[in-house]
Sequence to fold (577 residues):
Amino acid sequence: MTDAPASPVPDKAPPRFIRALKAMRDRRMAAMFLLALSAGLPYGAVVGTLNAWLTTEGVTPSTIGVLSIVTIGYAFKFLWSPAFQTARHPFPFLGPRRTWLMTLQLPIAGLLFLLAFSRPGENIGFVAVIALLAALFSATHDIVLDAWRIEVARSDEDKDLMAALYQFGYRIAGFITGFLALLLAGYFGWVVVYLMIAAMMLLSIAGTFVAPEPEIQTGEGNRRLTFQARIPERERNIATLLVSAGWAAAFLMIAGFVIASFTQVPPPKGGAFVTEQGPWIVGLTVLLPAAGALFLLLRHGREPADIIEGPSSEPALARTMRAVFRSIFDPLMDLIGRLGWGALLVLLLALTYRFTDSVWGSFAYPFYLDDRFGALHHTMADVAVASKFFGVLMTVTGAALGAVVISFLGRMPVLVLGAVLAAATNLLFADLSRGGLGIDAFLELTQLADPFRAFAGWATAISPEGQGAEAGDRMARLMIAIAGENLAGGFASVAVVAYLTSVVNPRFAAVQYALLASLTMLIGTLGRPWLGALIESEGYYAVFIITFWLGGVAVALSVLEWIRQARAAPPFSEAAA
Fold:
């Protein structure tokens, strides 16, 4: 009897990190880093650095608050993302995805170049138009880039590595438009800074040439679950048109207020806009779609069905209507169908949890740099080191701390704790605006005064405006306040991402998470004109006390959601595990 031949032993796959290192040699990875730069540069230049320039030009907080509304496109880019779901371009000379990337990158670079010579102190309306266009182009660029990143990945290692490179490139862009921009502005002025950002935007376009075009999927198409399969086309179109009209009306309200703010004398009051039109805007953009989703659920049932997406001869309008329905109604109908009244709590939490961060973000630079309304009047070198170097480190530390604590305490306790910390750190800035007596006592009690003064000496040493012991003390106070706020912000960001992920249905993950994540920016963005006017009338101290108390809304909602989840079935992601 002869022995049977031994079956060949399959080759053992190399470790995951070895496969990731090998993938780094792929040109897709170099392209990912460069394209992430092209995504992060306009965001930092328009959302952050521009406010520092406006402050040094003497632009008031109320005007900065109005101007910041033009960046609302970042919050609602999911609305026009269906137009880029499939790879199409009228003139795809580099392939559809890469041609769209370049079609958006070139005007962004041109707008940043125009911004360098815009003289914002004299031409604020012109600056608003540039910022609006740059934000819309940049938000659309993000949509196309996300599609390219997903389509071009060949494995899980590719997806993870490209996601990491995207974050790394985005952070480098933030470092350029934050730390480096503020430092150079103190020496060479803002025109040189924005010319530098525009030049770097042009250089990052090299990523489009390096990037390979994704392979176009052909065949029957992809099977997807959607509620529209059970709803008659006429009824579906009516619901989609009603919600689209509501969104259009809300945007017209916002646009009318922004235009009137820059053209009318006297301009309309930000507080009146928030209290009179704000509820209508939230109602049209959030409550109307939710009510429509509830009506359709009650009429047609709570279970979605399969639909095949693929090459279609349908008119473009019909495809767009179906895509918009999937973007808005599918995630809401699933959420309401699964959670019932708890869906209202989820939506309210999404709207309010990051309010104290998002509403305050546009006024950070004015508070640090200005000398009015109780602001601190630091140099740009001070702010570069404290906020854009030390502060970034603290944000990363806070996120890491949140990830560790959530593994021990669980998601809901961390959500509540994050809301408490985010609200409480407003008191640090309130103390800072009154001279920082509380922070000084903390520094002396913990023996941290000398180490922070030593670190602060770096900023005062590189500042073109001089240095001194008193400057070191002021910097130490600023760094403590920023450390507290950024630690809390990083911690809270982990908490809210974990929470939103837990309530998302994996069957609708992309659109549902995009919708909920966008709502976290809505209230904060709409509240900025009111906050800017309040700063001018009451000063920064009063504003920080008010935002502290407003942060209590998120705390209360987080506690209610914790109670609801404790009494209900496990969250969807846990039940399905």
